[in-house]
Amino acid sequence: VKIGLSYTSIDNAKLNLEKEAADLTFDEAKDLAKKRWNDALNRIVVSGGTEDSRIKFYTGLYHALLGRGLASDVNGAYPKNDGSIGKIQLKQDGAPAFNYYNTDAIWGAYWNLTNLWAMAYPEYYKDWVQSQILMYKDAGWLGDGIAASKYVSGVGTNMVSIALSGAYNSGIRNFDVEAGYQAALKNELEWRGRIEGAGKMDVRQFVEKGYVPYNDEVYFGTHDKGSSFSASHTLEYSFSAYAVAQWAKVLGKTDDYKRLMELSTGWAKLFDDTNKVIRPRLENGEFIDKFNPLEPWRGFQEGNAVQYTFFVPQDPEGLIKRVGVDLFNNRLDSIFTEARKSVFGGGKVTYAFSGLQSPYNHGNQPNLHISWLFNFSGKPYLTQKWTRLICDEFYGVTGEHGYGYGQDEDQGQLGAWYVLAGMGLFDVQGGACDKPTFQIGSPLFDKIEIKLDPQYAKGKSFVIEVENNTPDAYYIQSAEFNGKPLNNCWIYREDFFKGGTLKLKMGSTPNVKWGTDVLPYYGK
User: What is the pLDDT of residue 342?
Assistant: First the structure.
């Protein structure tokens, strides 16, 4: 069956069919699809490791590339928010200048999807950014989520600013930068005239008070009454304020930078020094009573205080100092030890939300970065250990194991996490800081080659070579980058895009000194 699809008109559905498939036989269409997928999947080539790891890796990569829905036609027509039809400018060859993507939000994707896009699929990332800016120009706001160009606020927040900043600071800049920046700035600071689907309906309180007050009668929040998800919103708004501050810093917008960096400290206003966790506050400044850090939904969306306390990727040093480095490491290590008993808060035949009362839930977004925080706390060998075990035990190759059953894959996010962890590269800030890094974990394979896009990168490829890669040898003993010893558990993203070779020597016992001299850079 040949089908023409369009969001805009029957005529354009016919045109799409005519331009893309009219002359194709079934076998030709199948061969073209196979070639396109092979070209996409072969941008990252892995060898060695176990067969199951390779199956999981390319399944995860496949999922990560399925996610965003194409909503524009071959002639550049696309659906606008007001129900009318817009037109994307055409290139000289008659094709649209970019693809217009919509579908769902970006909640949590700045750790997973966008990191992966920046590495190997920057043109995809660029089109997504341009789509968001076009949405802003049409309707006045960045959309928390978009369906047929209508705002659909799935989680009541709006994290698009982080992904826009991450694109710019990763070197993807061939878009309307000023419009993108103004859209991100408005997303962080403005409440007047804000439409519900844009999320952040409680952002006024955050901007004026520095935190969102808890109100158990208000679900997603209003301009004046706080939110039942006040604590998680405060943490999320603090991080996104930081992301736009870093973009402002690079653009030389000093006043914006200072204001946003002050807002990025909002997490500290909810830190309870008694039990060393984030705790919701009321309008009068008092902490809520009858507080159980493992109770989900009371102040925290799709999570609990134990999980969300680590949601300070913009200032890991500040969080670690506030908790205390020994308690921080012991608590985080214990969390994974306990969560492993339930396959890291999910996995196998349990549903993603069943992990909401767990200290860690890999089946959902809010704390997918925390296994990488040991890189900031002086014990990178624990990041190497726990990321490897999550890859091996949470993810599987059968329909009843891992994210293949009942987990919140969310357009490839869990798949993208596995791809990144399998390569041993991640960034808890999603590229948002002014000089972004990739933090190093425990690769699953003997060799990994990431092919770089010449339009965005100076190098041809980035290669990771792993010596003594066995299933139980997940601790880094030593490292070299481009022939020189590497004693940091991270590299600058700028150096990644220059290309080169990272060599890791692995072992079955931790090297507790490697990677502890200089902690990963994050913007201040």
Answer: 83
Structure confidence by residue, pLDDT tens digits, 406-438: 577 888 899 999 999 999 999 999 999 999 999
- How far apart are alpha carbons 477 and 513 in whole angstroms? 9
Between CA 227 and CA 492 the distance in angstroms is: 38
Nearest to 385 by CA among 277, 264, 509: 509
* Structure-block tokens of residue 347: 């996995």
Three-state SS for 470-512 is CCCCCEEEEEEECCEECCECEEEHHHHHCCEEEEEEEECCCCC
The answer, as to whether pTM is greater than 0.70, is yes
* 3-class SS string, 58-126: HHHHHHHHHCCEECCCCCCEEECCCCCEEECCECCCCCECCCCEECCECCCCCCCHHHHHHHHCHHHHH
Query: Helices (DSSP H) in 210-301: which residue ranges?
Result: 230-251, 254-263
Structure tokens at 273: 């020094």
Q: Are 460 and 53 in contact (CB under 8 A)?
A: no
* Tokens, residue 269: 């206003």
Question: How far is it, in rounded angstroms, from Cα 487 to Cα 519?
Answer: 10
Which of the pair, 413 or 278, is modelled with greater confidence?
Answer: 278
